[in-house]
Design brief:
heterodimer; A: 277 residues; alpha/beta; 7-stranded mixed β-sheet; 6 helices; 17% helix; B: 134 residues; alpha+beta; Beta-Lactamase; 5-stranded antiparallel β-sheet; globular
Chain lengths: 277, 134
């Protein structure tokens, strides 16, 4: 299984020079295994995909964690949606009273976007999911709600013996940087358990978090503890804060490595980088 | 190991921040969590007991009416919530750890998350009138 970071930035896209090392596009990760491909989130990173390749696939699957703008902003400009009869599946959480389709309609409708979702030429299938397990091609997918404002899913994706967990927006403990002692009380834990790769929110520093309580994002302390407790093999810090320049991200990573001596690899997710598991 | 549902986890996080006693139970009534103010009522610490089966923790109270008659379980708000999956409220008397009787009110509500699955209930205890704390 291969995975490629197409968008790693949180909140809003940036073209600032200070963001170009790790990327300015918002959340999007591509998973592939031979003929099967999955797109995780549709932030502006989705615009970096090879549209020609996707327009010729038998089907396209886009898995959304939630519908905040930085995770769907690129969706309307994903050209394969406009290819007649191409089979496109969008998976994601619904609301308590409104469906996923209804929420997507609000984006795909004037004045925000000129083309209503019903007029997209592709053969669109919208799958509303919650805590669930399902299969797409060679991928076994488990989803669970995690703590973030509004309905938000985390994904655990298994391909053969390898597991990638993707939780780009997550505040596992609200108001405290110490996770509960028992694993079952930790949001997202079962998704992360023994994952080969964890791609996880790392929006705030330990020092900044107290002023951002309840905003739905992790501090460094949160993500480090979660990865350690869950026994992951490799952690990619993701959803980089657009207020942090890249050299600050690097300094923070150096501090983490010096102070924590974690038993797993920690890397900064880098736009354009592809890895194989 | 299956983790707790997110709405149960969030209920605990909220309970941790409240100054009123809060009990969180699973659909069978097993006690999943109680906060610090609730520890004073139970006379036990969550850190010591962890979760408790319904058979153990439900016998810690002797709920009575004003005349001192024992209340059947089906009249208790939390039991109603568990059986009907609806909010319930009621007042009754319990004996505190110091042997004194206190009137309390209990509000219970079901936890049904976005998955539409009934995953448990929360009971909040209130001391009535100006009684000293239990």
């Amino acid at each position: 299984m291969k995975f490629k970071f197409l968008g790693t930035r949180g909140s809003y896209p940036s073209q600032k020079e200070e963001h170009l090392s790790y990327g300015g596009n918002t959340s999007c990760v591509e998973l592939s295994n031979h003929q099967h491909r999955l797109i995780l989130d549709a932030g502006t990173g989705i615009l970096g995909l090879d549209f020609e390749l996707y327009a010729n696939l038998p089907r396209i699957d886009i898995l959304l964690t939630h519908l905040h703008m930085d995770h769907i902003q690129g969706l309307a400009f994903f050209k394969p949606l406009f290819k007649k009869n191409l089979e496109v599946h969008i998976w994601g959480p619904g609301g308590t009273s409104n469906s996923l389709r209804s929420h997507l309609n609000r984006y795909f409708s004037p004045p925000l976007f000129p083309v209503p979702i019903r007029e997209l030429p592709c053969q669109l299938h919208i799958h509303e999911i919650s805590n669930s397990t399902f299969t797409i091609g060679a991928f076994e997918i488990t989803t669970a709600f995690v703590i973030h404002p509004g309905p938000t899913l985390g994904y655990r994706i298994k391909n053969g013996a390898k597991v990638i967990t993707y939780i780009p927006d997550h505040e596992p403990m609200v108001g405290s940087q110490k996770l509960y002692n028992k694993d079952k009380w930790v949001s997202g834990f079962s998704l992360c358990k023994n994952a080969d790769v964890l791609i996880h929110d790392s929006m705030y520093t330990k020092e900044e978090y107290p002023s951002k309580i309840g905003w739905g994002h992790s501090s460094t302390e949160h993500v480090i503890q979660l990865a350690r407790r869950a026994g992951v093999k490799q952690l990619f810090l993701f959803h980089h804060n657009p207020e942090y320049p890249d050299n600050f991200l690097e300094q923070r990573l150096d501090r983490i490595r010096q102070n924590h001596h974690e038993p797993y690899d920690i890397l900064l997710a880098t736009q354009g980088m592809e890895y194989e598991l | 190991m299956a983790g707790s549902e997110i709405e149960i986890i969030l209920s605990r996080q909220l309970a941790d921040c409240l100054s009123v006693p809060v009990f969180i139970v699973d659909p069978k009534g097993n006690l999943l969590f109680y906060n610090e103010p609730a520890e004073e009522i139970l006379g036990k610490k969550y850190e010591d007991t962890g979760e408790m089966p319904v058979s153990e923790w439900s016998t810690m109270f002797t709920p009575k009416d004003k005349e001192g008659n024992l209340l059947p379980p089906e009249q208790l708000p939390l039991v109603k919530t568990l059986s009907q999956q609806k909010p319930a409220h009621g007042s009754f008397w319990i004996k505190s750890l110091n042997g004194q009787d206190y009137e309390i009110s209990v509000t219970a509500y079901p936890i049904i998350g976005r998955s539409k699955v009934f995953t448990g209930a929360v009971a909040i205890f209130w001391m009535n009138s100006d009684q000293d704390e239990v």
